[in-house]
Every structure is written in structure tokens, then in C-alpha cells.
């Protein structure tokens, strides 16, 4: 999966997203197109799909109970990012740039973000002993994702910044009530 994504990202950078075919990606990754589709049902999924959710869940569940939900998510995200290599961060940023600049990917990413929002709501509901459909839980998850999306857009336009630091600063700002 990672090899296919790596070659896809390289080819998208060289040829553009729309000009790159699944067949070209499969050939570069030395797999068949059917193997590509076993991992990624669509071309968009090669950019959108990742394995970060299990890392987030595990890191979140390890956080001390005395942390607020936002503090626990921030700590979990920092823990997950700490395990990333410089190459992992560069790949994350390139995927983000593609998602934010290619309309088809941006639309597909919104579906992924909604799934992540539901995951966060589940984690927070469990931690706070509230129902997942509690409006406060849903609002919290939506606010967290909204802040994350704003940083994804910012990072795509300002590649010189440190996305991990930007995300953390944004979450600190969220925790402070979004003062301006």
C-alpha cells in the first residue's frame, strides 16, 4: 500500500493528478492494476486513504483521564506525529497539497473528514461517558475537524511552515475559545 502511494505521489508531482493513470501507478509500483484496486477502490483513494486512525485511537486511549478531551486529542496527535519520520511528514504534506488543490480530491477528502469526525465523536463520547449523539460531543468533533481543515488549507498555501506545529497552535487556540 505504501509503495503504491509513494509512486502515485511521485507521478502526480511529475505529470499532474489528472494526467496520471492507475495503469502508470501500478506499473511504477510493480503491481498489477487489479492489485492497485485491491488496496484502493478509486484513484482518489490512493491519496485520501491512510493508516492514521488506528494510531490516533491507540494514542488517545493511552492519555491520562484527567486531561480534557481536547488535551487528550492534542497529546494523541503529538504522540502520533512524533513517530513520523521526516519522509512521512513530507509525504503527508504532499498528499495535503494534492487534496487541497485538486477538486476531486478535496471532495473525496471531505467524506474522509466526516468519517474522522465520527471517530473523534466516538472517542470523546466514551471518554466523557456521554452519548455519541450528544450535541456537545458532535459540536466538539466538528470544531476539531474544522480547525484541522483550516490548517490543511493554510499549509497547502504556505508550504514553508511546520504543519505539526501549526496544527498544535490551532488546537491550543481552539482550547482557548478561539480568541482573536
Automatic annotation (TrEMBL):
<feature type="transmembrane region" description="Helical">
    <location>
        <begin position="135"/>
        <end position="154"/>
    </location>
</feature>
<dbReference type="Pfam" id="PF00440">
    <property type="entry name" value="TetR_N"/>
</dbReference>
<dbReference type="GO" id="GO:0003700">
    <property type="term" value="F:DNA-binding transcription factor activity"/>
</dbReference>
<keyword id="KW-0238">DNA-binding</keyword>
<keyword id="KW-0472">Membrane</keyword>
<protein>
    <submittedName>
        <fullName>TetR family transcriptional regulator</fullName>
    </submittedName>
</protein>
<dbReference type="Pfam" id="PF17754">
    <property type="entry name" value="TetR_C_14"/>
</dbReference>
<feature type="DNA-binding region" description="H-T-H motif">
    <location>
        <begin position="21"/>
        <end position="40"/>
    </location>
</feature>
<dbReference type="InterPro" id="IPR001647">
    <property type="entry name" value="HTH_TetR"/>
</dbReference>
<keyword id="KW-1133">Transmembrane helix</keyword>
<dbReference type="InterPro" id="IPR041347">
    <property type="entry name" value="MftR_C"/>
</dbReference>
<keyword id="KW-0812">Transmembrane</keyword>
<keyword id="KW-0804">Transcription</keyword>
<feature type="domain" description="HTH tetR-type">
    <location>
        <begin position="1"/>
        <end position="58"/>
    </location>
</feature>
<dbReference type="GO" id="GO:0000976">
    <property type="term" value="F:transcription cis-regulatory region binding"/>
</dbReference>
<keyword id="KW-0805">Transcription regulation</keyword>
<dbReference type="InterPro" id="IPR009057">
    <property type="entry name" value="Homeodomain-like_sf"/>
</dbReference>
<dbReference type="InterPro" id="IPR050109">
    <property type="entry name" value="HTH-type_TetR-like_transc_reg"/>
</dbReference>
Amino acid at each position: 500500500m505504501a509503495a503504491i502511494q509513494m509512486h502515485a505521489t511521485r507521478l502526480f508531482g511529475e505529470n499532474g493528478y489528472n494526467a496520471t493513470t492507475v495503469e502508470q501507478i501500478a506499473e511504477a509500483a510493480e503491481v498489477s492494476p487489479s492489485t492497485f484496486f485491491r488496496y484502493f477502490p478509486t484513484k482518489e483513494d490512493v491519496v485520501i486513504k491512510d493508516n492514521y486512525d488506528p494510531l490516533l485511537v491507540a494514542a488517545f486511549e493511552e492519555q491520562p483521564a484527567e486531561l480534557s478531551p481536547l488535551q487528550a486529542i492534542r497529546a494523541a496527535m503529538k504522540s502520533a506525529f512524533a513517530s513520523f519520520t521526516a519522509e512521512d511528514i513530507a509525504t503527508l504534506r504532499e498528499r495535503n497539497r494534492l487534496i487541497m488543490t485538486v477538486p476531486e480530491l478535496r471532495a473525496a477528502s471531505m467524506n474522509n473528514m466526516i468519517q474522522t469526525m465520527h471517530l473523534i465523536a466516538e472517542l470523546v463520547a466514551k471518554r466523557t461517558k456521554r452519548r455519541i449523539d450528544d450535541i456537545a460531543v458532535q459540536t466538539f468533533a466538528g470544531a476539531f475537524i474544522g480547525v484541522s481543515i483550516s490548517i490543511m488549507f493554510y499549509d497547502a498555501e504556505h508550504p514553508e511552515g511546520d504543519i505539526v506545529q501549526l496544527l498544535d497552535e490551532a488546537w491550543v487556540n481552539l482550547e482557548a475559545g478561539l480568541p482573536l
